[in-house]
Amino acid sequence: MDTLLRPWLPDDAPIILAAAGEPMMDRQFTSPIDSLATAEDWIATLTARRAGDTAYSFAVLDEGVPVGNVAVSSVERRHLTGWVSYWTREGARGKGLATKACRAVSEFAFAELGLFRLELAHRLDNAASCRVALGAGFQPEGVERARLLYDGVRYDTETHARLATD
């Protein structure tokens, strides 16, 4: 994980701002990233969540430069579960980085956090995200109908899971 992933740093704010400006990337952030200040706030929130043991987000690196994000969030200690998410910038897609990062964050969650079950979901019309999930060892578990709402349109999602014993 050392050369592929690292925690987000305050100096990464310009990269986050640029990523948020790419087409459809606004869906990857819970609130708009439209300035360096909001990008810095996003990074500060990730740092606070790590300190609170609720989420662990990492910059995905390509030749040392952050080009994406991978996270295990909704860390739940009673049932030892977490939720995995990932995105990469346009220029980094198709290189297998998201799959490698998803595998690496899963191994981190199992080995370092002691989690047992990880889940993720993707829109049914996002074949690339499905390939990432499958390539990272996440097995399909089912379809959630009309799960997401973007711009007034509902989308079905497919849920996947990976167990520490897989």
UniProtKB/TrEMBL annotation:
<dbReference type="InterPro" id="IPR016181">
    <property type="entry name" value="Acyl_CoA_acyltransferase"/>
</dbReference>
<feature type="domain" description="N-acetyltransferase">
    <location>
        <begin position="3"/>
        <end position="156"/>
    </location>
</feature>
<protein>
    <submittedName>
        <fullName>GNAT family N-acetyltransferase</fullName>
    </submittedName>
</protein>
<dbReference type="InterPro" id="IPR051908">
    <property type="entry name" value="Ribosomal_N-acetyltransferase"/>
</dbReference>
<dbReference type="InterPro" id="IPR000182">
    <property type="entry name" value="GNAT_dom"/>
</dbReference>
<dbReference type="Pfam" id="PF13302">
    <property type="entry name" value="Acetyltransf_3"/>
</dbReference>
